[in-house]
Automatic annotation (TrEMBL):
MF GO annotations: enoyl-CoA hydratase activity
The protein, known as: Crotonase/enoyl-CoA hydratase family protein
Organism: Candidatus Marimicrobium litorale
Keywords: Lipid metabolism, Lyase
EC class name: lyase
EC number, as in UniProt: 4.2.1.17
Length: 268
């Protein structure tokens, strides 16, 4: 059974973490498969949006499978497979699966089907629209075992949430339920388990109706200007806007509106 299910549905890439028997924890195989999945989303011009979810009804992702990956990284275990050799040979593998380097400017939707603990909560911070099942829970418990959430949370969370909410998650290590996560702004929407995938599909369909170059420019600008001085940020924004305005899609949109039809955006 593959650790990741990659399902291309027209212009959508549905990525499913597929280790429900192991709480969808990220083991070596999932590290590699997820990195490859993000790269395919990045390079395939036909893909306009990615949806990230997980198998099962209890766990989205309960962090890294440390019993498998830590012995490799510390040298306590020698690589025995080609996958393990590749895992050791790529020091940036964590950055790749957490979309830190290189970044992904296409929209990413998360359908959170259960607990997201440790690395699971860190992975969610790399997504844009987050729909949670009402029984979902979130936590960064790393300090309880003497380590830190170093896959992006110490930087991302305080930029994505108000300070006090971010610090409650980072310093408290306690479980945060879906309703509280919604109030904090950690997730976009809370629905029943039965509604979860349909709502994710709704958002993905909506993204696909919009101009892909415009959406990527919006996300790129939001990410790249987050800590820039205002003047530099506005300059970057104007450059992105000018680039989009020169596209064929920017001419197609007004033309379709005038002709009272749905625009046919091609990402050109």
């Amino acid at each position: 059974m593959s650790a990741i299910v990659f399902d291309k549905r027209g212009q959508q890439a549905w990525i499913t973490l597929n280790r429900p028997q192991a709480k969808n924890m990220i083991n070596g195989e999932m590290f590699l498969d997820l990195a490859d999945a993000w790269q395919e989303v990045r390079e395939d011009d036909d893909i306009r949006v990615a949806v990230l979810t997980a198998a099962g009804d209890e766990d989205f992702c309960c962090g890294g499978d440390l019993a498998e990956v830590i012995p490799l990284w510390t040298g306590a275990k020698q690589p025995q497979t080609q996958a393990e050799e590749r895992l050791l040979a790529d020091p940036l593998i964590t950055d790749k699966i957490m979309l830190k380097a290189p970044p992904l400017y296409k929209p990413v939707i998360a359908a959170i089907n259960g607990r997201a603990l440790g690395g699971g909560t860190e992975l969610l911070q790399a997504t844009d629209i987050r729909i949670a099942a009402e029984h979902a829970q979130f936590s960064l418990p790393e300090p309880k075992v003497g380590v830190v959430p170093g896959a992006g949370s110490m930087v991302r969370l305080a930029r994505q949430l108000p300070w006090a909410h971010a610090m409650k998650i980072l310093l408290g290590g306690e479980l945060v339920g879906a309703s509280e996560a919604l109030i904090m702004g950690l997730v976009s929407e809370v629905v029943t388990q039965g509604e979860l995938l349909a709502r994710a599909e709704h958002y993905a369909d909506n993204v696909c109706r919009q101009a892909p170059l415009a959406l990527q420019a919006v996300k790129r600008t939001a990410l790249e200007t987050h800590t820039l001085p205002w003047a530099d940020a506005f300059q970057f924004e104007m450059e992105q806007a000018a680039h989009v305005m020169m596209s064929k899609d920017a001419r197609e949109g007004p033309r379709a509106f005038k002709e009272k039809r749905e625009p046919q955006f091609r990402g050109e």
